[in-house]
Structure formats: C-alpha cells, structure tokens
Design goal:
alpha/beta, Arc Repressor Mutant, subunit A, D-Maltodextrin-Binding Protein, domain 2, 3 domains, five-stranded mixed sheet, 15 strands, about 35% helix
Length: about 325
Amino acid sequence: MTAISDLDIFSRVARTGNMSAAGREMGISPAVISKRISLLEEKLGARLFHRTTRQLTLTETGEGYFRRVVDILSLCEEADDFVSRRNTKPRGTLKVTAPTSFSRLHIAPRLGEFLERFPEVKLDLHLTDHFEDIIRDGFDLAIRIGELQDSSLVARKLAPDTRVLVASPKYLESVGEPKSVAELELLNCLSARAQDHWRLDGPEGLEQVKVEGNIRTNSAEFVREALICGLGIGLRPTWDIAPQLASGDLKIILPQYRGTSNMAIYAVYPCRDYLPEKVNVFIDFLAGLFADDQWARELPALPKTEPAAKGRAAKGTAPAKPTRRPNGAAANI
C-alpha cells in the first residue's frame, strides 16, 4: 500500500509541474522529491510523468492516478478536520476561481462583510474568464457563469444570468432600431470570444440568430465599453450593464427577447461528503447576495407567447429579406 506522504508528494509535483517547487512547499530537497517519485513509479509499475529538461507533465496514466489521489487526500484532510473539530468552524485559506468582471463588480465590494463575519478565513482569489480545472489546480470553489456541462462536480445555482439585447442611443440613431431578430444579422453585433450565434428566448420559443461584428475580443468589459461608445449591439447580462441601463447610456432593444434561460451563475465544487465549513459559509454568503436577481428586477416582463403565424409570411410565401443597414457606426466616431 502506498504511503500517504508519497501521494502528497506526487500531488504537489503534479499541481506545480516542478519538483523544485513541490520541494519548497514541503521543505524537502528536489533530489529527495525526484527519488520518491521514481520509487513510486517503480512500485506501481507505470510511468506517471513525462520528463524533459524543461518540462514535467503527467502521462495519461498519471492523469487518472492524480484525480484519484486528490480524492484520497481530500478525505484524509476531512478526517483530520473531523477529529480535531476544525471543520465545525470556518477557518483556513479558501482558494476560489471566479470570472474577472463579475468578481470586480459584485464580489469584491462585499468581501469586507464576509471577512468581518469570518475573520479566520483567508481568501485566495484567482480571477479569469476561462473555466479552470478546479481539481487539478487545487481550488476549493469556482464561480461559473454559463451553461454547465455534465461532470462529477457539484453545482449550486446562485442566480439567473438574465441577458438582454442592448445598444447605445448613439448607435441606434445612426442605424435605426431593429424591429425583429432577423435584422440583427444586418447589424454590428459585438461579443466576448468567438460567438457566431446568439440563442434567444422570445414570443415563439428558442431562436438562434447568426451574428457578425467588426470587433472580437476575449474581454467582456471591453465589449461593454464598446457598446457604450456606440460601436454596435450586444447580448449582455444584466449584472454587467444594470448601471448603464439606469443612466440611459445603454438601451434595451427587442425587449420581448432574452438570452436563453439555461444560463445561470453557479458555485461549483468537488463532490465531498464533508464539505469544509469555510466553503459552505462562502457559498451561503454569495447565495444571499444574488438570490433575488436584483439586476433584472426593473426589466419589463416578457410578453405572452403569440401565435406562430403572427408577424410571419403565410405558408408557402417567402418572407421579404430586410435591406442591409450600415454597421459601420464605429467608422463615424
């Protein structure tokens, strides 16, 4: 049976991708770390790492072994917490990954309240708009916005992610306000990352609209600022643009449509029988902040579904194709 200490060494090397870094964490020399890893591989009869002079990466076998080792070490930590009663009180470092803009706007301003309530908790926040592997990278918790895929992780919904179509008054003055979703294909539509289609819930159910724009970026904050400057139309979450809607810097267009209701804000964490209390209290804190979807409270209600034929061409008749409008408002600014 493999010693827990060897599993700990293996886990740290796998996470850091570096024997020296793992050694510094544990107060052990890199030579000893390397020897213990070699002995572990010899005992298991399998190579766990690919080694080059510059890089150390897990083999396919090593990846599978690592995921199981993480669960074992988590259970050991939980067992220690249970015996020492540490798990009954929130304490220790809470490692969280979360979206950049959402965290800056809606988590950072309220952290003082959380830390005052739980002074023995320290937060290690990693902000990124990419989905991190929370098991591999050792996160206790991830805040994710979108449609979740099936996985072994546990997810708790914190709030809806209500998305609306918006543009600035300046842009709408230059191109005219669209009267149907079909017209979106003719306008300058701005998205974060490579989104070629927008999925919209409307009077006739789910619709998918092909969109194009002259700006492509990985930054949601950049898209918001570009919309405010009059560069196009966006499908944006209300948590991102509520102040701009209130001030009139942005205006909702086609209010009978919303982004697909499958989108939501989630807290995601590894499946554990005994979730550390520091994780529990942080999830409960966030749920208390966002549960009432305060950003969408002032939005107009969606209209009732209308008969499918209303506003459409009669069966067997091709609908008139809208005339393309200029999308180059940016060129005039």
